[in-house]
Amino acid sequence: MVSGTPTQRIMALDPGLKLGRHLRFDWFDLTDVDRIDFPEGVESATGELLYALVSIARPRTILETGTRMGIASRYLALALGDHVEDGLLITIERCGYCFPIAAQKFREQGFDDIIWAKQGDSRSFDPTEAFPDGQTKIDMLYLDSEPQYRYEEFQRYLEYLSEGALIVIHDMVSLHCRQFHGVPEWLQPMIESREVSALSFPTDSGLTVMQYRRKDWEK
Ligand SMILES: C[S@@+](CC[C@H](N)C(=O)[O-])C[C@H]1O[C@@H](n2cnc3c(N)ncnc32)[C@H](O)[C@@H]1O
């Protein structure tokens, strides 16, 4: 029986980690932040929401873009370990400085059997590389690389999504927000036909959760 909130459990595994609740730039787990390009990770309130989403939706396979130090990865992996049999988190990070640190944390903190991590670019990554049988579908996409890549990543991984898959986009306060240049042309008809539906949460940095359903999905 595990005890404590997901945030408390992550802190217990990694006592040096400074987690912020909402504010951006108020925490990071590096002393030498000048050496990386983006010193943020998910805020704990959103991490708890990610944990809750996984515990309810029970995705078997999750793909995360932008591992950084693996904060969100650990919320997602904890939830998979607690609620999903044989759950797999695939996470991809292009930064050569961040990736080995995150990979080492995953190894040392016992996440190796749940997290499949790779250094690479999310825009060219082929997820079948990580699928044990080469056929697995993605049940949840967590997009957290650079804002300008996230719709592109959604489109890239669309063919691998299972019916009912969740697409979670960090930093997106609404589908139409300017930071993401509005809804792309390829997605607009899918929203109009209700193939994709969306819900946005007013967290400090913003979070939008979409659901993918094929047009012929009934009920
Ligand atoms: C906001 S941080 C991710 C935070 C992390 N998900 C967390 O909550 O702990 C964004 C990360 O995406 C990485 N990144 C940016 N573009 C990428 C790409 N095309 N492919 C993979 N990683 C990328 C950056 O190097 C950075 O580490």
List keywords for this structure.
binds S-adenosylmethionine; Rossmann fold; 20% strand; 219 residues; 6 helices; 7 strands; seven-stranded mixed sheet; alpha/beta
Give a verbal description of the structure.
By secondary structure, the chain is of the alpha/beta class. It has one domain (6-212): Vaccinia Virus protein VP39 (Rossmann fold, 3-Layer(aba) Sandwich). It has helices at residues 6-13, 44-57, 71-83, 98-108, 150-157, 188-192; strands at residues 61-65, 88-93, 115-119, 138-143, 161-170, 196-201, 207-212. It has a seven-stranded mixed sheet with strand order 3-2-1-4-5-7-6, with helices on both faces. Strand 4, helix 5 (150-157) and strand 5 form a beta-alpha-beta unit. Helix 2 (44-57) runs parallel beside helix 3. The chain is globular, with a radius of gyration of 17 Å. The structure holds S-adenosylmethionine. Residues 37-38, 40-42, 65-66, 68-69, 71-72, 92-95, 98, 121-123, 144-146, 149 line the site of S-adenosylmethionine.
Count of individual domains: 1
Main beta sheet strand tally, sense and closure: 7 strands, mixed
Helix-and-strand structural type: alpha/beta
Tell me the fraction of residues in β-strands, as a range: 15-25%
> Superfamily at the CATH H level?
Vaccinia Virus protein VP39
Give the integer mean of the pLDDT values: 86
CATH topology: Rossmann fold
> Which kinds of small molecule does this entry bind, naming each only once?
S-adenosylmethionine
Taking strands numbered 1, 2, ... along the chain, how are they ordered across the largest sheet?
3-2-1-4-5-7-6
Please provide the count of β strands. 7
The end-to-end distance, rounded to whole angstroms, is 36 Å
Low-confidence stretches: 22-39
Radius of gyration: 17 Å
* Percent helix range: 25-40%
CATH class: Alpha Beta
H and E string: HHEHEHEEHEHEE
Number of helices: 6
Question: Which descriptor suits the 3D outline?
Answer: globular
Q: Specify the CATH architecture.
A: 3-Layer(aba) Sandwich
